[in-house]
Amino acid sequence: MASKAIPSSILVLRIVTLLALVASVVVLVTDHFTLQDSTQQHFQDIHAYRFVLATAAIGAAYTLIQLPFDIYYACAQKRLIRHGCMPEFDFYADKLVSLVLASGVGAGFGVGFEFKRVLDDLFLLLLALGEDPVSLDEEQSKDNAFFNRANIATGVLLVGAICMAVISVLSSINRTSNSGFFG
């Protein structure tokens, strides 16, 4: 039997993970702005941000499903589903979900920082070509706020991915301390 610290730590980390993933979804879904020509720009207009949302939603759903099992395990110090299959499932599923979340973080930061750099260069070029500096500053400000907010959502997703990675390590310890499915 694993020490009481591991199930309790897993439970706390799952709760933090769920909160981070839900916060990431909320920040990303509310990220939009309107251009001067009344065109709306939403997060879903950029495919990588759709992927970020999907990874956060998958991670949140998985964490929500795992929560009752972890609450029971932390309180009762025994598995709700016995026969050794839960430690084995946790071991593989936690690793898979942590990798999915990490890929969402990579996609979100990659696109966010690269688009910001390209748009900053574009605004400098338009300014050099004689465009109105006031309207360009306004548009650049909106673009920067949009990508900053998306980067914040991705950063919060990173917190969830780190927590899930730590859970993955703890589930590895938990798997070896219980004989597991094959042991």
TrEMBL record:
<dbReference type="InterPro" id="IPR006702">
    <property type="entry name" value="CASP_dom"/>
</dbReference>
<feature type="domain" description="Casparian strip membrane protein">
    <location>
        <begin position="7"/>
        <end position="112"/>
    </location>
</feature>
<comment type="subunit">
    <text>Homodimer and heterodimers.</text>
</comment>
<comment type="similarity">
    <text>Belongs to the Casparian strip membrane proteins (CASP) family.</text>
</comment>
<keyword id="KW-1133">Transmembrane helix</keyword>
<dbReference type="GO" id="GO:0005886">
    <property type="term" value="C:plasma membrane"/>
</dbReference>
<feature type="transmembrane region" description="Helical">
    <location>
        <begin position="96"/>
        <end position="115"/>
    </location>
</feature>
<dbReference type="Pfam" id="PF04535">
    <property type="entry name" value="CASP_dom"/>
</dbReference>
<keyword id="KW-0472">Membrane</keyword>
<feature type="transmembrane region" description="Helical">
    <location>
        <begin position="152"/>
        <end position="173"/>
    </location>
</feature>
<feature type="transmembrane region" description="Helical">
    <location>
        <begin position="12"/>
        <end position="29"/>
    </location>
</feature>
<protein>
    <recommendedName>
        <fullName>CASP-like protein</fullName>
    </recommendedName>
</protein>
<keyword id="KW-1003">Cell membrane</keyword>
<keyword id="KW-0812">Transmembrane</keyword>
<feature type="transmembrane region" description="Helical">
    <location>
        <begin position="49"/>
        <end position="75"/>
    </location>
</feature>
